[in-house]
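Assemble and predict.
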Amino acid sequence: MIELIAQNPILAALVALVGLSIVFGALLGFAAEKFKVVGDPIVEQIDELLPQTQCGQCGFPGCRPYAESIAAGDVINKCPPGGQSTINAIANLLDVPAPELDAEHGVESEVKTVAYIREDECIGCTKCIQACPVDAILGAAKLMHTVITDECTGCDLCVEPCPVDCIDMLPVAETIADWKWSIPAKPGQMIATDRRGEVSPAVHNEDAA
Amino acid sequence: MSRTWVTPGGVHPPENKHQSLTQPIGQLPIPEKLIIPLSQHIGAPATPCVEIGQQVLKGQVIAQATGVVSIPMHAPSSGTISAIEHRPIAHASGMLAPCIEITTDGADTWIEHEGISDYEHISPSKLIEMVGNAGISGMGGAGFPSAVKLNPGRQRPIDTLIVNATECEPYITADDSAIRERAGEIIEGIKILSAILDHPTNIMIGIEDNKPEAIAALAPHVEDSGISVVVFPTKYPSGGEKQLIYILTGKELPAGKLPADEGMICINIGTTYAIKRAVIDGEPLISRVTTVTGDAVGTPRNYDTLIGTPVRHLLEHNQFDEQAGGRVIMGGPMMGFTLPSADVPIVKTTNCILAPSYAEIPDDDPAQPCIRCGMCAEACPVSLLPQQLFWYAQAEEHDRLEAHNLFDCIECGACSYVCPSNIPLVQYYRAAKGDIRKAREEKVKSDHARERFEFHKERIEQAEREKEAKRAARREATQQAKADHLAATASGGAAPSAPATATPASAVPSSSAADIIAAAQARAAAKQANPEDQRAKLERTIASAEQRLKMAEEKLAEAINDDSGKQDKLSAAVENTRQKLEQSKSKLAELAE
């Protein structure tokens, strides 16, 4: 046998190659089983990106059901609280083009809001408490209710059920603690005369447009 | 002379320090109003402990520290509290923050205060307490509460104390002039720090070689004291904490680590002076040396300024020419920011008020596109890739920014300084950092909201399940009873003692009547099945039986007295009640078992 192989270089090469492929194939197969990485399920990843307001504006009862629906092939532009940035993030994750927000489900609001109950008008009907998806409203039957501002996601689901219309959505005021620098105008968007307000930015923007 | 190391990058902007060093540290008249922001430091804002209209003396506490990482505030001069409200403060946003306003009375009367001279014999914790009570926070820039920094709750002992006298930013000479005039007190402060830190083996004052007078002033005081003055070549930014530590020790502080993790403490030289005043003289931190400079002021110089002095007061006493320059910058030209108004007060971290003329510091030229020249990367003292960060910041790619260590950027401005395209790079990094921090906060909030939503859902479902279970149990009991009943009627013929079936009209038990009976039985069974209910019921029975027994016995006693012939009847009733009571009691006992 050995002699036969030694005399036949083609056969020797074949045996060596087949032998090597069997060994490496087995090795790779073993590694694939042994070091199998269970990927993060896509629903979890989408749910991570959604804003968790649980507002239901997408038509689903909460963020997770919508994430499940997206994973099953639904469109990704039904989330107004998340806005374009969330759509972009999901598009990035799923590797699909990012569409504009579907206006049918609402518009992206510029400012974050929280619910505020005008307490002297509250009749204590508990309807808003039942509507709140994150249990952020405190109160009892026939007693005044109030919103725990820190827990409110601003979903405005409590506004509609209120029979006396005593819930307002108030914008959250920016404080020094959460102020941040803004990105400067991109290079090339400003010319020398813009510097000291010699040409007002508004005029310049119109020109640019 | 000990060895020094050289940091990467760095720039050499014109120093412009000589202008403000021609005169000694000056004193200003006490301003009419002092505005003391409650948050001049890193950590929780102080809580006011005075009322409007209250008289305060110089050095009196007007706001208490809130929690551990906070500092108290003191009245910088005597007077009346005239307002506690939101005022514009020295912040790039131009927003308002809570402040206490004092209308000064000009008398400048001190509150009673007393220091200690033999600090060597006082426990470090007592000394740290004194530093904390004096409201001292780092005076170099960030304003971290000094007492927290010195607190010994750390894993390893401090073997190196570094005093930062670098003052590398152009124009600023506050530390330089303070060292020239107060070297003795500063060294005293360092000795107190040494006592607090249990005498570290290595005490160094790091100072750039552009301050020969200050170095000469320190020399006589450090002889035989174990403190070494380390002089190194001038380069911006050498005064950053991590940069200075590298220059003096050759140790690179890992990202996210504090100097204390490596057995080092780095403290600003102005802070050491404040510590000396606090311990030896018992005076809180109510004033600091501030440089007023720039071509738009008459005489650039340093002032010993009361905390809370409006910037306008400083400028007005220095012939500020508003025409020459419109801007007032707090801090230096590299890291400072333009003040929204001159009414903001000087705070504990204000080392410089710069009022340049337009000729001196012209407005930034408009930014041109990045040409990838790489000069910013050469200038970066932290060895980051500024142009790369710039691209990612523009594209708002937060993951990439973090991967490129954006958060190690010290915002020194060296990259913007060398950029031939005039791109305001640091502003991009600040904005990106803000965005990332906000995104992190929102992530925490949304995770929290998800948790609450899931709990809410779980709770609703739980309630629903319980209701459903009850319903099912009832249904099952009904069916069981019905089956039993049917079985009984089928085998035994007539229904046992069923009044509904006893009526002649319905000799054949109608199914509806059987249903009703079965339901009633099921209800009874369900009630009995619940031992709690049963016990309550029995207890009620016992209580009422006892009462009845009592009444019956009374009646019996009456009857015996009257001799009315009802005795037999009544005694039988009493016996009967007693028996019932016994029965109930034994049942209850059974149930309890």
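The first strand of chain A starts at residue 113 and ends at 117.
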